[in-house]
Structures are given as structure tokens and as C-alpha cells.
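Anyone up for a design puzzle?
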């Protein structure tokens, strides 16, 4: 550490002769200062490391929080899995303690228990709370764009690698992320691949689960009616409601794109027809009801009749045109206990998030994670930060170019294996939209998969398939039939096997 500190001091002095004379020299903390103490009221774990580490080159107080668990199986010592939750603005502690970490809140329990399907059996696992202001990551200057998110995360990884004995250079690194991390993961991978001379991360693969890889419309409205039709009997949607949704879907031209995406190999790019030009021709078909619109307070008009459905699709003042997705979600939410995360969830489905938040708001828990140092104060733990979501989801702050342009480049230029997985019961990010997005991408010399998906079994003798999958030219796609948005929470065993295959293969 003395050497490290000295080196960074020296390079600083040499690189920037006009440095602000009042700036403090940057001294990285010792690895040992991140040792955690045993978590209160929880089973013991092998030594792990956690805490806040500042983002270099940004104001003091802008830090990311991390939690690094060592592998529990020496045979997998060569691997480092980096996990990122989405939101944007949701803590990776959600992933660690509700999805795939060594400890998990199961059932009603108010304290964490051992998770038999922990990914720490497949490698060292690093959970990162990012961007600043997410979970335990502190915030001095709020994040303003995806560009800044990625620049902060990259700089931070450089320091993390220094503190943790070059773990990113020496292990086989696999980055896995969920939901909005469908943007973070390809972007950070792209940054890593383009800046290998600064930090030669040994990046072996990326995986994206239920991720936002496509356009807004492509991820939502384009697929949603296909999704609803697929699950019609389970969702028990009355015929007149279904007809109204299908009417809107057809008028907006979304059904045509779904048909195009079912042709293997695809015959060229799919264009989203809901642009203002095409929509104008669709508009006159629509039954308009002024009186309802006049009473709109928010976007959600609780559309529970065919008339309201059409109004919400075509004439929402805040959703914009062809709001098939939002209308469908609003309609389903008029039912009690409907969950966009998994259409099988109901009133009896236990939500472990309050227990998680209560536990991580405890002073003794935060102290165990090195978060109660003299300058720190106890702050309640929130699994998601709504301000970050509002900022990063604002149209002006969306990533340019979007993920679906970055992924083909990772595959084609950088030859990085990309794995996309998805829960079929997830309505929030529906699989139909994900599949359309994949079929619309061009990588390694061709557009989309050339062959349709096929059934996948966990073991040869299994009668029931666990999912549908395909893999071509470096890209794999796995659709898990029985899981939703938080796939490792819904199907811990199946997703563990999947991640094991990803790690063994790459
Ligand atoms: C939750 O607690 C209740 C009452 O203590 C119990 O009846 C129920 O079985 C528990 N549910 C789970 C999933 O553990
Ligand atoms: C398909 O790709 C084209 C060209 O990149 C793009 O303009 C279009 O919006 C994409 N369509 C979908 C459904 O994502
Ligand atoms: C629907 O939108 C159009 C165009 O913005 C507008 O002219 C019309 O009055 C709206 N209809 C209702 C019922 O508000």
C-alpha cells in the first residue's frame, strides 16, 4: 500500500504540473480496511470485504459501495462475477440478498439465511452500488447522464483493482446485470474493451437478465399484446378488453413487426411504425371520448372498459401515442395484487423487500460493513432511489447510442461472448420485445438468429423443459419458462446452473 500510494502521488505530480496546490494527495485505502465484521443475526461467512470507495477525479463524497465475497469453492477461484442491479437507482444488495448471494431473505424471515444456490460457489462475487446515490453509494454531486454513470464506474474500477491486488486483471471476469443494467453492462464492457491499455481487465463474458436492451417502444409496446395473448388464459382477460387491446395494437402496426420477427432468418430491419407519420393514418379509426380525457389527472386512467382502453392507447396526454404497453399495465393494475414482475405473483406472494430494508438500516449492520466510521451517520437503507430513476429515464438523458447498437459491436469487433436471459412471466420487460430486439440486431455477419429457439432441458432425462434457447455467432439467449423479472429469486437452482455453464464455457 505504501508503494501504491507513493506511485499514485508521483504519477499525479508528474502528469499534472499545474495541479491545484490546495488539492490533497490521493491516498487509496488499504484492502484490510474493508474487512467486514460478522453480520448480526446471520450465519457466519468466510472473510469478505465491503465499504465505500471514492470515485477518483470527482468531488470528495462521491463514492460507490461494494461488497466482495470470496468464492466458496476453490475449483472456481479463477473467476470473478460482477453483479449489477438496475432501476436505475436500485442497490445491488437486492441482488445479493434476494437473488443470488451467499445469504438470502427467504420466506418471512427478517434476517438473512444461507442460500444453497449462491453464485459464490462459482467464483468470487463483487456487488456494486452505482451510480452515486444508489443504496449505500454516497452522493456529493447527483448523477446526470448515462455517460457520467459509465465514466464514474470505469474510474472507480481502476482504483478498486489497485486496492484489491489487481483482481480485475488476474481473474476471469464475468459481468452480469439485470433490468436497467441491460444498459450498464454493455456500456461498461464497451468502455473496458476500448481502454484495455489503461486497465487490462480480463473480461470473458457479459450476461444480461430481463434487460433494457432495446428501444423504449421495442421493449414495451411492440411486444406486450403478443405477451398478453400468450398468457391469455392465465391472465383471464375478458374478450372485449382483449379485443380493445388488439385493436390498438393493430392500428399502431405492432402486430406486423411481431410477425416479421418470427421469420428465421429475418428479412431485414424491423421499423417501429408508431412514428407520428404512420400513426396519423391510424388515428381516425379510433373512438375518442373527450369527457373522460377532460378528467385525467395523471397518465393512469384506470382503463377497465374497452372504451377507456382505446382512449388510453390513442389519446393519453402524458403517455403519448400508441401507449399499448402502459394501457395494458394500467388495466392489469386495476386488479388487486397484480405484479408486473411476475404475472404468477398474487396477494399471497411474500415481498421480502421491507425485511431487507429494515435489516440494512440497522446501525450494527452498517457498522459491520464499515459504514459507521467517525464521519459517517446512520442513514436508512433504501433498495431503490427514485430520483436517480427519474433523472436517467428522462428522454434527454437516455444513452446514445442505445444498448442494441453497443451489443453487436462487442460481439463483432471485440469478440466478447454475450448472454441474454429472460423470465417468460416478466411483464415489465416482456420477452417478446427482447426477442424482437435480438432479431433486429446484426452481429458477426448476419442479422438475428438464423434458426428459431429450441427447447432446453436441465438434464437429458427431464420430461419438462426449463426453457427455450439459442446460441449463434457468440450470442446466446435463454428464455426461462417459469420465472419473472427477478429470475435468480424465482428460479435459483435453474439460474445457478445457467451461470455455471456461462462460466465454464467462456
Ligand atoms: C409466514 O409466517 C406465517 C405466520 O408466522 C406463516 O403461517 C407462514 O407459513 C409463513 N410463510 C412463509 C413463506 O414462511
Ligand atoms: C431495428 O433496427 C433499425 C436499424 O438499426 C432501427 O432503426 C429500428 O428502430 C430497430 N427496430 C426495433 C424494433 O428495435
Ligand atoms: C385526441 O387527440 C387529438 C390530437 O391530439 C385531439 O384533437 C382530440 O381532441 C383528442 N381526443 C380526446 C377525446 O381528447
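Challenge accepted. My sequence:
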Amino acid at each position: 500500500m505504501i508503494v501504491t500510494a507513493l506511485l499514485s502521488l508521483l504519477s499525479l505530480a508528474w502528469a499534472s504540473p499545474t495541479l491545484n496546490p490546495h488539492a490533497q494527495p490521493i491516498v487509496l485505502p488499504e484492502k484490510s480496511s474493508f474487512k467486514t465484521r460478522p453480520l448480526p443475526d446471520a450465519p457466519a461467512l468466510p472473510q469478505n470485504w465491503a465499504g465505500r470507495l471514492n470515485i477518483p477525479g470527482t468531488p470528495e463524497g462521491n463514492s460507490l459501495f461494494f461488497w466482495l465475497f470470496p468464492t466458496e469453492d476453490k475449483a472456481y477461484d479463477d473467476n470473478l462475477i460482477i453483479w449489477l442491479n438496475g432501476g436505475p437507482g436500485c442497490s445491488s444488495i437486492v441482488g445479493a440478498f434476494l437473488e443470488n448471494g451467499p445469504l438470502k431473505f427467504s420466506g418471512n424471515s427478517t434476517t438473512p439465511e444461507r442460500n444453497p444456490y449462491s453464485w459464490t460457489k462459482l467464483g468470487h462475487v463483487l456487488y456494486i452500488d452505482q451510480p452515486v446515490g444508489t443504496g449505500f453509494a454516497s452522493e456529493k454531486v447527483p448523477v446526470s447522464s448515462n455517460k457520467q454513470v459509465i465514466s464514474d464506474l470505469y474510474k472507480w474500477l481502476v482504483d478498486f483493482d489497485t486496492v484489491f491486488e489487481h483482481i480485475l486483471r488476474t481473474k476471469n471476469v464475468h459481468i452480469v446485470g439485470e433490468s436497467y443494467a441491460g444498459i450498464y453492462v454493455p456500456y461498461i464492457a464497451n468502455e473496458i474493451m476500448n481502454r484495455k491499455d489503461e486497465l487490462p481487465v480480463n473480461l470473458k463474458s457479459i450476461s444480461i437478465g430481463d434487460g433494457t436492451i432495446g428501444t423504449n417502444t421495442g421493449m414495451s409496446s411492440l411486444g406486450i399484446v403478443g405477451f398478453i395473448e400468450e398468457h391469455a388464459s392465465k391472465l383471464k382477460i375478458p374478450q372485449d378488453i382483449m379485443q380493445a387491446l388488439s385493436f390498438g395494437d393493430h392500428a399502431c402496426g405492432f402486430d406486423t413487426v411481431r410477425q416479421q420477427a418470427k421469420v428465421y432468418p429475418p428479412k431485414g430491419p424491423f421499423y417501429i411504425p408508431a412514428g407520428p407519420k404512420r400513426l396519423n393514418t391510424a388515428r381516425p379509426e379510433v373512438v375518442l371520448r373527450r369527457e373522460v380525457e377532460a378528467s385525467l389527472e395523471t397518465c393512469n386512467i384506470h382503463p377497465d372498459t374497452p372504451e377507456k382502453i382505446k382512449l388510453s392507447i390513442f389519446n393519453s396526454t402524458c403517455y403519448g401515442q400508441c401507449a399499448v404497453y402502459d394501457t395494458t399495465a394500467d388495466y392489469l393494475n386495476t386488479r388487486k395484487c397484480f405484479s408486473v414482475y411476475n404475472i404468477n405473483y398474487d396477494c399471497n406472494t411474500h415481498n421480502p423487500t421491507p425485511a431487507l430494508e429494515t435489516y440494512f438500516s440497522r446501525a450494527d449492520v452498517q457498522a459491520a460493513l464499515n459504514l459507521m466510521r467517525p464521519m459517517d451517520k446512520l442513514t436508512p437503507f433504501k433498495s431503490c432511489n427514485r430520483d436517480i430513476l427519474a433523472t436517467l429515464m428522462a428522454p434527454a438523458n437516455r444513452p446514445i447510442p442505445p444498448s442494441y447498437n453497443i451489443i453487436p459491436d462487442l460481439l463483432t469487433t471485440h469478440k466478447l461472448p454475450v448472454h441474454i436471459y429472460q423470465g417468460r412471466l416478466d411483464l415489465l420487460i416482456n420477452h417478446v420485445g427482447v426477442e424482437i430486439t435480438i432479431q433486429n440486431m446484426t452481429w458477426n455477419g448476419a442479422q438475428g438468429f438464423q434458426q428459431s429457439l429450441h427447447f432446453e432441458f436441465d438434464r437429458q432425462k427431464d420430461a419438462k423443459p426449463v426453457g427455450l434457447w439459442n446460441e449463434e455467432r457468440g450470442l446466446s439467449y435463454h428464455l426461462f419458462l417459469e420465472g419473472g423479472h427477478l429470475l435468480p429469486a424465482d428460479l435459483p437452482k435453474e439460474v445457478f446452473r445457467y451461470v455455471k455453464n456461462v462460466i465454464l464455457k467462456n
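A detail worth pointing out: The pocket of 2-acetamido-2-deoxy-beta-D-glucopyranose (ligand 1) is lined by residues 107-108, 350 (CB under 6 Å).
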